[in-house]
Amino acid sequence: MRFGVSGEICPSNMDNITPEVCAKVRELGFSGIFARFRENDPFTTTRAQCQRARGVREDNGVRLYQATGYWQCLIHPDGSQRAQAVRTLQAALRVAGWLGAYAIDTGPGSLNPRGPWLPHPDNWSATSRRQLIRSLRECASAAEDAGVYLGLESHQLVTLKTPEIARDVLDAVDSPWVRCDLDPANWITLETAFDTGAAIDRMFDLLGHHIVSGHAKDSVIQDRLTIHIDACCPGTGTLDFRTYLRRMEELSPEYPLIVEGASMAQLPQASAFLHRTATELGIQVMDE
Q: Domain holding 138: CATH number?
C-alpha cells in the first residue's frame, strides 16, 4: 500500500514545488501527494513549468498520485458550457501527463453556482447522468494519450450520490482510463454512520474493478437535532479504516490512499494512525 497526502502541505502553484516541500512530505511518512495547483490554469500552464516541478519532485523521491481535474461542470445542460468543461478536463489531463501524475481527481461538478460539491435538485436527474457519461466518454482518449487515469470522485450531493450510480456511470463509459477514486466518507449516510465497515464492503463489492485510488478522510455524525455528518481527520471519527485498508490492499498493493480532511497540524497524527493500522493488518507500506 502507498500513502499520499493532500491539503496545505502542497503549494497551490506548481512553481513553488521545492526540495523542502518534498522533504516535509517524506518526513511525515508519505510517499506522494495530491496537488491541486489551483493557480495553474490548464490552458496556459506550459510544459516547461510542469517539467521543472516534475524534476524537483522526482529528484526528491515524491510521487504525484493525483493532480487536479479543476472540478468543472461536466453535467451542464447547456451544450456550449458542457463542451467548455470537457475542454478544461482534457487540458487538465494533458498537464497531468506532463507532470508525471498517476491520476487526476475530478467530480461531476454541480449545477449549484456556489460550488462543484454543493447540492442542486437537478444534479440527480437522468439528464445530468447522461451528460456526465457523454463528457467522460469525450475525455477518455485524452486520459489514454496522457497516460493518466481520470479518477472520478463521488458524493451524495452531486450526480454520483450512491455507489450503484457510480458503477452504472463507469460501466456506461466503459474505458480502462476512466475509473473510480474512492472516498467512502462521501457516501456515509444516517443508515450507515454506525456500521461503516458494511458500507465500505458494499462500495468495494460494487466498484472493485473500477477503483484505482482512494481518499482517506474520516466521518463523524454530530450530536445535533438535524443530521450533520462531517468529514474529519483519519482516526478521529467512525470510519472503519481496517476494512478500508484491507479491501484496498486486496485490489492492489500499488494503489495510493491519500489523506484528506486533516490540517497541517494533524498530519503527523493521521500518518501515524494509517501506518499503525496497516501494521496491525500485516500490510506493507511502500515508501518509494
A: 3.20.20.150
Q: Which residues pair with 9 in a beta bridge?
A: none
Q: Which residues of the chain have pLDDT under 70?
A: none
Q: Which residues pair with 232 in a beta bridge?
A: 218
pLDDT tens track for 157-181: 999 999 999 999 999 999 999 999 9
Q: Domain for residue 201, yes or no?
A: yes
Q: Which domain holds residue 164?
A: 2-280
In a domain, 84, yes or no: yes
**Amino acid 98: pLDDT:** 98
C-alpha cell at 40: 495553474
Question: For the whole model, what pTM was predicted?
Answer: 0.96
Q: How far apart are CA 92 and CA 239, in angstroms?
A: 31
Determine the pLDDT at residue 288: 82
The residues facing 230 across adjacent strands are 220
